[in-house]
Amino acid sequence: MLPFPLLALYSLAHFWVDLSCALLLFRNLLGSGDWMLCVLLYNFCAFALQMPLGALADRLSRNGLLAASGCVLVAAAYLSPWGVVTAMTAGVGNALFHLGGGVDVLNRSKKRCAALGVFVSPGAFGLYLGTAWGKGVSTPLFIGPAVLLVLAAAILSLSRRCFGSLRSENVPFDTAAPGGLWPVAPLFLVVVLRSYMGMNQAFSWKSTGHWALALTAALVLGKCAGGFLADRIGAVRASNLSLGLAAALYLLSALPLPGTLAVFCFNMTMPITLWAVAQVMPGAKGFTFGLLTFALFLGFLPSWMGWPSLLTGPLAYAAVALASLGLMRLGLKGVGRC
Description:
75% helix
């Protein structure tokens, strides 16, 4: 199991890396002539590039160093005077951090999901707060890179203290899938659907009171709770329960409370999909982590391209939850200890 202090540090850094990227983009680039291009390039570098960079991470076997380098690179993006370079630098830094921290967590989680849920969950709150700070003017811009540099130093120090060196425990890189690759496709599609849903679902009550913050909290807590639930009752049962409840609650999502609970349940499978695909290819955890972030990028593209949303209302949201449930069950059939 990953030592708790290092897991806590990675989770805190995940929150701050995502916050810093959102703060930088929305404070410096929003409203510029190349804003849409910068959004595309940032997301491409942060998510699509994780697949090839993940293979590099697997081979390098220096996960703490990679995560710290990602923090430093995001901090360096604050120095760039060119919007496109800023977006790409921040995106690559974000990708490197996620891979370094993610592979370290996967290496030591073994057959369990809880730590992975704890690691991935704070990013959504970081994006929420960083976007709010970026659109405002009261928060000093330097706070982002200043904290990033402190976190980078802390990751290097704690990694060395926990493991005796910066060398990680990555197994030799191997993309072989002992049980076959067939479970990857349905799990990949689950992540595409989750990403598309996150970009396109709309609730009329979201701007009322504090419901926007409640939705973000549901997203964060759902991802975290999903890992613990899977460890408690198994990945298949956790997926059945969470996505089944999500489908039922989405039917009532015209109301704030059921809609918020639906988002909570729908996102519980995030750590399960990451864990499951890593089980399919245990010698390429970084590559599989990047494979699923590439799925996130694909789910983002229709919204960026301005295509009309295919999700319109509670029935559509419930249908996506049920489709995700079917795909999860199909994919998990080929994964051990479910």
